[in-house]
């Protein structure tokens, strides 16, 4: 399943990232934040309007926000 489909509060592990589907600068930013295979992640909040953007994620000890389009490129498995 992709990260955008993960239920809020569910712990998961990133198993793959579709880097070619992301712009180069977006991929660099996500990697710098620690988004990569093997990282533990959980969706902790979603935006409240139509697109439900952005998603707030718990990634290790950090909370980061990403767009749904980026979350769709991240494949996860429930922990």
Automatic annotation (TrEMBL):
Molecular function (GO) terms listed? Answer: transition metal ion binding
Q: Where is the signal peptide?
A: none
Tell me the SUPFAM superfamilies matching this sequence: C-terminal domain of transcriptional repressors
Parts of the chain that traverse the membrane:
none
- The superkingdom of the source organism is Bacteria
Print the keywords alphabetically: Iron
Q: Where is the Ferrous iron transporter FeoA-like domain?
A: 1-78
Q: What protein name is recorded for this chain?
A: Ferrous iron transport protein A
Spell out the InterPro entries in the cross-references.
Fe-transptr_FeoA-like (IPR007167), FeoA (IPR052713), FeoA_core_dom (IPR038157), Transcriptional_repressor_C (IPR008988)
Name its species. Qipengyuania gaetbuli
Please provide an example of a Pfam family that matches this protein in its UniProt record.
FeoA
Q: Which PANTHER family match?
A: FE(2+) TRANSPORT PROTEIN A
Q: Does the keyword Iron apply?
A: yes
């Amino acid at each position: 399943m992709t990260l955008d489909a993960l239920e809020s509060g569910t712990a998961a592990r990133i198993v793959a990232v579709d880097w070619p589907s992301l712009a180069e600068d977006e991929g660099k930013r996500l990697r710098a934040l620690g988004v990569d295979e093997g990282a533990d992640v959980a969706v902790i909040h979603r935006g409240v309007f139509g697109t439900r953007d952005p998603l707030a994620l718990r990634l290790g000890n950090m909370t980061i926000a990403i767009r749904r389009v980026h979350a769709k490129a991240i494949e996860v498995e429930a922990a």
